[in-house]
Amino acid sequence: SCVGLRNLLQGLNFSVRYYSKHNHLQTTCFYNKIKPKKCHMLNCAGSTCTHRTVPPGSILPWRFFSCKEGTKIPSKRKQNTSIITSELLYKNLLKSEQENWNDVSAQYKAMTKIIKEKLEELHKYTFNSGSPRVMPYLQDFFAISFFYVVDEGNVGILFSTEDFGFSDAFIQRIRISPDQRYMAISLKSENSEEATCVIMKLGHFPLVEKVIPNVFSFEWAANDVLYYTSQKNLKCQNVFMTTFTNQKHTKLVYTEQDARFFVDIHCTKDRRFLTINSNSKTTSEVWLVDCRDPFKLPALVQARIKGVIYHIEHRNDELYILTTYGEPAEYKLMKAPVASSGTDNWQLVYALEEKTKLVDLEMFRDHCIMFLKNAGHLYLRVISFVSHSVQSIKLPMWACEFELESHPEHTTSTCYFQLTSPVHPPKRFAYSFKENNLIEQAVQEVPIITNCHTTRLLAKSKDETLVPITVFHNMNSKELHRKPLLVHVYGAYGIDLNMSFKEEKLMLIEEGWILAYCHVRGGGELGLSWHKDGCQYNKLKGLHDLKACIMLLHELGFSQPKYTSLAAASAGGVLAGALCNTDPELIRAMVLQAPFVDVLNTMMKTHLPLTIEEQEEWGNPLADEKCMKYIKSYCPYQNIKTQRYPSVFITAYENDQRIPLTGVLRYVQKLRKAALDHASRTRKKGNWIPNIILDIQANGSHCESSWEDSLNE
């Protein structure tokens, strides 16, 4: 998640906490790189700083970086008449939709006011505020927070985003240099996916040393050596090193030229190595920077092998490798000597069970703790590197999401994390390696409902595969078949459905709603194979899974079609929109946020920033006619037909770089026409015409919004 990135503060032992759109506490550990990112990004093939003759993943010789070197100058072309006409039609269509929204939304003002007041009241109870908060830890007489420095009890402003013209920005990441003389901060606006990195020299009079635009990730390799990756058009392909010695300079260290790969950097828990990670959706490659000698050329761990993903940690002169290498193609923990790190020397430490999802992993000096999920159930797996034992720790049945907290010191003997569900605010837990027990941390009592029942079901899909469903409802509710049902689906990129706490979900439960989360294929709830079984030529399996889930819910007495609504966001719009075409009678309404509904046209446009990378998920219709026909068979836009549709509410964003607004506009226009054509043809008494509403937000982007913006939305 773009807003909710959990970041470890290097050097100073404290954690930054802030609230995302969904307002659950989040902090970042380094192994969040094992989790597929909620906002998918990719690398591009072209490079403005290097020659194309360099093979993919090559290490470049040191050289000074110049913004002029290799800069491409756009050619001046006259706009042709068709482009001007197309732009005019787009502007007129956009204006028409905005006027329509203004008229429609006015009808809901009274209802909106009531709902907003309820959510604000719940928010007061569950969280103190939506603003960033800090838990400072004193070290060497000062600690850094988002904006303040604490010095023996005196508080003063250290850094203000407004001073740099970032009035609408939030602080995404903070890294302190090992000697605590420098602080690197990344600032990001909610209306953009690019971040700016500000480096400050700390002391009695903090000074800004450097400002670097378009930065994605950064880490200190040494006291005065910072590595960072640059991002442009959602692509991240270059790694730079910048120094803060007497002779300051910036050099290009690494470039990636395969358009399917995205590059980021991390630091191992013991700060022994900095890792340059180049990952596609199915393949990865890692290079090591020795933090004891950061000017030395990076060393390759293992050349990329198609279909093999791996990530690196370090302990006692050995590399610990989290990888899909070998059979079965699920995650395994392996190890190898630093000096001979190729696959020939990889030794198995632990392999995951079948249909198990690795959510996160944290390394400590003597232990490794895995956060796992199986059919919706969460549990821990603790591996001791001393006794070589493996223990399994059960977690509360209501828990649906982990949030691992930061552990700056890998020598600590306790692992802290939070558990949450859509209707349970985060609860903090601690696992003690010494005591071998799980402790729920004392928290202030939150006056929330205690009678919410959690049910886990299995629906039999078309090919008889069992698909998990998680259901929440109020235990005091009677006649569940008459209660409204909100079904959630995603099913793409190997990403789990978002089941973190949201005030609006709790409000719906209190109002008597039933919430259902369908963990269909294409997602990651049952491991990597679950994703593989729902991508490319298997996309229709996800649609069959969704249909089976909704039908089972109705058969078991959870609501009925006329009280059922379907919710999806981003790529989840593919399955939701497809079901709307194939089985519209199963639902009464559909709510989509920034939906991907024009798959075929988007995947045919290689100039769009994500198209090349997305081919590993959807296929390449330009190169394969069979793939084109297959995508066309389920693409929501392509399969709209004259029939009775459910009501549809869509939220889209003008500044969305990931989902082209033109595709959403086309989809809405075509859907409205089909619904109206059906109504005019049937002309039956009491014929129902669905509401098809599009709300285009001028602000915001594809990533998560602030609490205030999401509340208004």
UniProtKB/TrEMBL annotation:
Which UniProt keywords are listed?
A: Cytoplasm, Hydrolase, Protease, Serine protease
Residue ranges occupied by any Peptidase S9A N-terminal domain in the UniProt entry: 171-437
Q: Top enzyme class of this protein? A: hydrolase
Q: Name one Pfam family in it.
A: Peptidase_S9_N
- For this protein, the Enzyme Commission number is 3.4.21.-
Q: Which Gene3D superfamilies match?
A: alpha/beta hydrolase, Prolyl oligopeptidase, N-terminal domain
Q: Which GO terms describe its molecular function?
A: serine-type endopeptidase activity
- Superkingdom to which the source organism belongs: Eukaryota
Asked if Cytoplasm is a keyword of the record, the answer is yes
**One BP annotation, GO:** proteolysis
Which ranges carry the Peptidase S9 prolyl oligopeptidase catalytic domain?
Answer: 500-677
The record ties this protein, via InterPro entries, to:
AB_hydrolase_fold, Pept_S9A_N, Peptidase_S9_cat, Peptidase_S9A, Serine_Peptidase_S9A
What are the GO cellular component annotations? cytoskeleton; cytosol; Golgi apparatus
Query: Which parts form a coiled-coil structure per UniProt?
Result: none
Q: Where in the cell is it found?
A: Cytoplasm, Cytosol
Function per UniProt: Serine peptidase whose precise substrate specificity remains unclear. Does not cleave peptides after a arginine or lysine residue. Regulates trans-Golgi network morphology and sorting by regulating the membrane binding of the AP-1 complex. May play a role in the regulation of synaptic vesicle exocytosis.
**Family the entry assigns:** Belongs to the peptidase S9A family.
Q: What is this protein called?
A: Prolyl endopeptidase
Annotated organism of origin? Fregetta grallaria (White-bellied storm-petrel)
Give the taxonomic lineage as stored in the record: Eukaryota, Metazoa, Chordata, Craniata, Vertebrata
What gene name does this entry carry? Prepl
